[in-house]
UniProtKB/TrEMBL annotation:
<keyword id="KW-0378">Hydrolase</keyword>
<dbReference type="InterPro" id="IPR018077">
    <property type="entry name" value="Glyco_hydro_fam25_subgr"/>
</dbReference>
<dbReference type="Pfam" id="PF01183">
    <property type="entry name" value="Glyco_hydro_25"/>
</dbReference>
<keyword id="KW-0326">Glycosidase</keyword>
<dbReference type="GO" id="GO:0003796">
    <property type="term" value="F:lysozyme activity"/>
</dbReference>
<dbReference type="InterPro" id="IPR002053">
    <property type="entry name" value="Glyco_hydro_25"/>
</dbReference>
<dbReference type="GO" id="GO:0016998">
    <property type="term" value="P:cell wall macromolecule catabolic process"/>
</dbReference>
<dbReference type="GO" id="GO:0016052">
    <property type="term" value="P:carbohydrate catabolic process"/>
</dbReference>
<dbReference type="InterPro" id="IPR017853">
    <property type="entry name" value="GH"/>
</dbReference>
<dbReference type="GO" id="GO:0009253">
    <property type="term" value="P:peptidoglycan catabolic process"/>
</dbReference>
<protein>
    <submittedName>
        <fullName>Lysin</fullName>
    </submittedName>
</protein>
<comment type="similarity">
    <text>Belongs to the glycosyl hydrolase 25 family.</text>
</comment>
């Protein structure tokens, strides 16, 4: 048993995806930390109103923080968690060359974080050459499914015509789904579409959409931000691990305590402060339950993180 469907982004503006043939639609939701597909809400509502299965995806970038990307995605798709397959799109794009081994680590970080927050295990999308050339063993061992892409040519494909994958997977034993052309044509839309085949029935799709573990708090907590003079203060709880030795300040960027956090040590913070003139974003944490100390975590000018966020 298999299902036929297609995936869409802003390129399909004006399309009523519910009126075009198919068992499912995968809709681009977000990219990076500040882009939401303007067609997202409309296409999602059309999909659900037509009784089709739904998938929503985030286009990952390596030029912005992964945790912030995941939080941004979860905020946008929150109404559909438990109803939609969650997907991470792993491709290179302008300003973000992520298809390398370091990028695999970023993808794993995103997948783990979304799974931790929602209990839903996301699926990874990438092309067969990328699946073959990089080491995906950590992602496979964590049991994240694969949506694989591979085209033979760019000839027009009229109607769904699933075929076998040309070549073979190196790291995954099987794929969840296969995108086999980007030049599909269906009545009801005058442009081309990416065609996909899902290897399972509607019940199997629902299993990918629903939580597979309990989460302590499934709600997506919105950050609260306030201003104090030139400083922007954001309340957020998390863990930061420096990628280098970092000094500890009594105030953001002022009065070093003489103590340090070494590379890889964990800092549990309750918020962060930023000021363009200071040059850095500083996480705030409590020392001995009373004092508040600060550690630089990101360069403001470049956006470069000085460690990883969990």
């Amino acid at each position: 048993m298999s299902l036929n469907g297609f995936d869409v982004a802003s390129y399909q503006a004006g399309m009523n995806v519910g009126e075009v043939a198919g068992d499912f639609v995968l809709v681009k939701a977000t990219e990076g930390i500040n882009y939401t597909n303007p067609e997202f809400n409309g296409h999602v509502k059309q999909t659900l109103s037509a009784g089709k299965k739904l998938g929503v995806y985030h286009f990952i970038r390596n030029d912005s923080d992964i945790k912030q990307q995941a939080d941004y995605f979860l905020t946008v798709v929150k109404p559909y968690i438990g109803k939609a397959m969650l997907v991470l799109d792993f491709e290179n794009t302008t300003g973000s060359t992520i298809q390398n081994q370091a990028g695999v680590g970023l993808a794993k970080q995103w997948l783990d974080y979304v799974y931790q927050k929602t209990g839903v295990r996301p699926v990874l999308y990438t092309g067969i050459s990328c699946e073959n050339s990089l080491d995906w063993s950590s992602v496979v061992k964590a049991n994240y499914g694969l949506w694989i892409a591979q085209y033979n040519n760019y000839n027009v494909v009229n109607g769904y015509q699933p075929r076998d994958l040309y070549g073979s997977l190196k790291h995954w034993k099987t794929a969840v789904m296969f995108q086999y052309t980007s030049t599909g044509r269906l009545p009801g839309w005058n442009g081309t579409l990416d065609f996909d085949v899902f290897y399972g029935d509607k019940s199997a799709w629902d299993k990918y959409a629903k939580a597979t573990k309990m989460v302590t708090n499934k709600s997506i907590v919105r950050k609260t931000t306030t201003k104090d003079g030139v400083w922007t203060i954001t309340n957020e709880v998390g863990t930061f691990r420096p990628s280098q030795k970092l000094g500890i300040f009594k105030y953001p960027g002022l009065e070093l305590t003489g103590k340090y956090y070494d590379k890889g040590e964990s800092v549990k913070y309750f918020g962060y402060v930023s000021n363009p003139q200071a040059g850095y974003v500083y996480i705030a944490y409590r020392y001995n339950s009373k004092l508040i100390y600060y550690v630089a975590c990101r360069e403001i000018a470049t956006g470069r993180a000085l460690g990883t966020f969990e």
